[in-house]
Amino acid sequence: QVQLVESGGGLVQAGASLRLSCAFSGRTFSTYNMGWFRQAPGMEREIVAAIGWSGYSTYYGDSVKGRFTISRDNAKNTVSLQMNRLTPDDTAVYYCASRGVPYRDLGYSVRDYAYWGQGTQVTVSS
User: Confidence band (pLDDT; 50, 70, 90) for 105?
Assistant: First the structure.
């Protein structure tokens, strides 16, 4: 069973940066595609970014392109999300997610991911 634990959320002012991290355990991390999602109050959960098992393939949601960077360290079993130039619209609970089986294609929606972390709150004040 895959377990995911996020860290790094917090309260920041607009324009600031934050780095989220997710620790993966229970399977061979280097074979699983990973994603970051977020959910604001009253909104559906949406994809922020995804990264392939090797780290070469990435995907970003339109609202974060050019500001956020997803990366992974297969030696440390972690996936990270560097968030720059944050705005109040980025306020949400951020979730780390893993595909259900290894070596799948990048997933772009909630239903593509089988395992989820507990989420970490990111709040951006204006």
Answer: confident
